[in-house]
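User: I'm writing a tutorial on reading structure tokens. Could you give me a worked example: one chain, its sequence, then its tokens, then a sentence or two explaining what the tokens reveal?
Assistant: Sure. Here is the example chain.
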Amino acid sequence: MRLYEQRNDKDTIQCSYCFETGHNKRYCPTMKAQWDANPQVHETYDHDSLVEIDKTMFPNGYQTYYGDEQAKNQFRGHWEYMQNRYAPKAETNKARKATKCGFCGEEGHTRRNCESMKNFVYVLEQTNREYRSQFYDRYIEGMGLGAGALVQMRTGNETESIVGLVTGFNPNDIVFTNLKSRWSDYHSKVKMTYMVDGQQWTREFSSLIYDKDYYDNHKEHGVWSEFYSHWGSLRGVLSPAPNRPSKEWFMGQAPCFNWIVKKRDQGTLISTLSELINEFYVHDDLKERLGESVYDTYFKRYDGR
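And here are its predicted structure tokens:
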């Protein structure tokens, strides 16, 4: 998933205060420095008394459009946030709040010992296992895709094609979230690399397979329609991959869903992935695994389809 792939990529994080990349506003050094430089507004806000706040707080590209007043407006817009974050807290004798799980929202436990989270990880793993099984049957065994396959690829001319040799097709990238929108945080890329006349090309599997009558065949492809299009590059396989992995080995590979459930709550994940879970989870214990309330909220609408 994009969410997992970018977990260590600080360049994808942009601060909503100074607009620099590499941190968020919680760890913004500019915000802290500007707060410290203006003790006169720590208790009562006074826009006219602000000092050491100007457009240089923004990246160069933003400075073309933003001036000093916009910088001060950022401070004003985040003043209450800074008060809550940086102002000394008065000591209180408030009773400690009950422990609440960040995944399921129930009190009395945390993610560390959440049975709902463990059950959901199991559901994700089984969903992915069935997806990989169908992917294997459809594309690896069925079409012969894999490293070493000879494939027919489209050129810019509708009637012409070229022959390429597949040099890379990573089976570890095949996750049921391949079928989520490519713009989604939950989309997982699967790519095919091929060689033509000594030049290497890489294509995402999404919308890769050419289907002249794609719109007519949309229902026929069903959930797999994500991989087909009328502008796809792959016309077909001329010679199957000589050393395709066995299905037994292929089914043994699994992504780390344990990381995802530590970063998102149950409602967010299930509402986002319920359609694909319903498609590929083949067991009849979904209500038992997820609980009646969760099942009725997210999956009951699929009953009888």
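What the tokens reveal: The radius of gyration is 26 Å. Residues 115-141 form the longest helix (27 residues).
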